[in-house]
Amino acid sequence: KIAALDSLCAQARILPVITVRQAAHILPLADALAAGGLRTLEVTLRSSHGLTAIRTLRRERPQLCVGVGTVLDRTMLAEAEAAGAQFVVSPGCTAELLQAALESPLPLLPGAGSASDLMLGHGLGYRRFKLFPAEVCGGVAALQAFAGPFPGIRFCPTGGVRPGNLREYMAQPNVMCVGGSWMLDAEAMDRGDWASVERLTREAVALLD
Ligand code: 3PG
């Protein structure tokens, strides 16, 4: 599963964190992200549309890689798996969720914000984590500090990543990709302004080259 996460993060480079505000948004939203250059998506279970959105994307956009985010427990993991999610992201680590994901065919990128979280995951074999909330729990300085005691661990920092700090995060040797929602402005989505989602996505992707 470490290899699966490595390959999906290498392909993604930026993982857009999507909270679907209206069911009708999902396809235009995903198409705008894809047109801007992002084809690996994380659909969160923060809104009631999350599972439906995952099902819709898997059926209608099989060329995209669709993960599920904000998975908090074993039940949400099972629901996301049944909906067709291809990978799983959580904001933090619990022994219950880490264990459940070991029994699932899906790879889990667990959230971690402290050395203790990393030790909990490490003890169960996890080596790839979402640093969350990245800016709040120390940002680049935290990543550099974790590199010492955890040399085999790599991160997807998420939470406060923006165009202004994206390149600095990506330059860290223990960063494999970053996540964020800055290209998905809630007002733009409510207006159906998919061109702005596409433009912000394209601008973010251009920062990586
Ligand atoms: C998440 O929970 O992963 C965040 O909502 C993404 O963080 P951001 O909104 O600060 O980009």
Automatic annotation (TrEMBL):
Pathway: Carbohydrate acid metabolism; 2-dehydro-3-deoxy-D-gluconate degradation; D-glyceraldehyde 3-phosphate and pyruvate from 2-dehydro-3-deoxy-D-gluconate: step 2/2. It catalyses: 2-dehydro-3-deoxy-6-phospho-D-gluconate = D-glyceraldehyde 3-phosphate + pyruvate. GO terms for molecular function: 2-dehydro-3-deoxy-phosphogluconate aldolase activity. InterPro entries: Aldlse_KDPG_KHG (IPR000887), Aldolase_TIM (IPR013785), KDPG/KHG_AS_1 (IPR031337), KDPG/KHG_AS_2 (IPR031338). Keywords: Carbohydrate metabolism, Lyase, Schiff base. Belongs to the KHG/KDPG aldolase family. This is 2-dehydro-3-deoxy-phosphogluconate aldolase.
